[in-house]
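Memo to structure team: turn this sequence into structure tokens by end of day. - J.P.
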Amino acid sequence: MRGTGPATFPYLVVRHELRLWASLWLWATRRTHDAAAGGSAFGYARGQGAMMAGFAFVCVVESVMMSLLLRDWPAVHHVVLVLDVYTVVMVVGLHAASVVRPHVLDPAAGTLRIRRGIHVDVRIPLERIASVRRELRTTHEPADGELALAVGSQTSVTVELAEPVAHVSFFGRRREVRVVRCHADDPGALARAVERARAGDAVP
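Reply from structure team:
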């Protein structure tokens, strides 16, 4: 595990930016990231699509306004324009990362992979799952041993574990979690698929 001191911060930032660009490429080529050939992918980005589109639109409007305000200062105008365009690209990249990195259930490997964009990737062995259910929540108070991955301010699937799994944050902080709450575009399908996989049945 890499340290989290100042020396590693540039590495983390560069890695973050590269993953965003890779997500844009995968999105443009209609591919997904690390979706197992024998597994099933479950998307979760639909709930944030309108919000991200709205955010990108606001950024575009802000870029146009700044261009008009700074038209008499060419040097400043060019710098701000580059920053504004890059901001729009990064907003689109964040949404693309959520689209191309779905949750993945891989019965052959015996794992459920819960993800949220490029920031969270938790692999849960199926034998550690005590229960999985569809559960809509719109508020999430911080709690020890719980990981809430809200999309559009909500989670719709709750996975309770018999044994904890490790979650490593963006800055390398590691903690054990026993409850994982996430969102899925079709939460019922995800919950049913996990139950079938735990029972040893084939997952369509």
